[in-house]
Amino acid sequence: MRKRERVAFGAIVTAAVGYVAGILTAPKSGKETRKDIQLAAIKAKKEAESTLKTVHSELDETIAKAKTLSAEISKKASDELHELTSKAKESKQKVRELLSAIHEGETDDKNLQKAIDEAQKATKHLRQYIEKQNTTKKK
């Protein structure tokens, strides 16, 4: 994960912790506080789902580009591309499974973040490889 992404993630976590601390120390009834916490959890779930959908779409697009490129490159490069594409497809499947689990309420934050990280990593590696091949092809 790049430094900028780590800082953004840290800011989000810090904001969430601050929000929860504010809710718990606010002069509200227990019923109101529980309702606020429930709404915050629903919002976090929707944000995670949105992120997973975005990552899923990016993987789809990148895999399509890789397939197009595969037809144009050498055997060795094709084998490397096939390996990266396979990893991207595995990540895409995990994202799809987690999206289903979110809808059914059967997942936790640890699984979500791990899947997001893996999918983003697979997308990044595949895009870098495609860009490298396109640059080489233009020369």
Brief digest:
The protein has 4 helices and no strands. The chain is mainly alpha-helical and about 140 residues long.
Q: Care to describe what's here?
A:
This protein is an all-alpha fold and 139 residues long. The protein has helices at residues 3-25, 30-70, 75-104, 109-138. It is elongated and about 65 Å long. The two termini are 31 Å apart.
Keywords for this structure?
single chain; mainly alpha; 139 residues; elongated; 0% strand
Query: How many β-strand runs?
Result: 0
The H-and-E topology, N to C, reads as HHHH
Beta-strand content bin = under 5%
Q: Termini separation (Å)?
A: 31 Å
Question: Would you tell me the structural class of the helices and strands?
Answer: mainly alpha
Oligomer: single chain
Q: Which stretches are low in confidence, meaning pLDDT under 50 for 5 or more residues running?
A: none
Residue-averaged pLDDT? 77
Radius of gyration: 20 Å
Individual helix count: 4
Shape annotation: elongated
Largest sheet: none
Q: What fraction, in percent, of the residue positions are helical?
A: over 70%
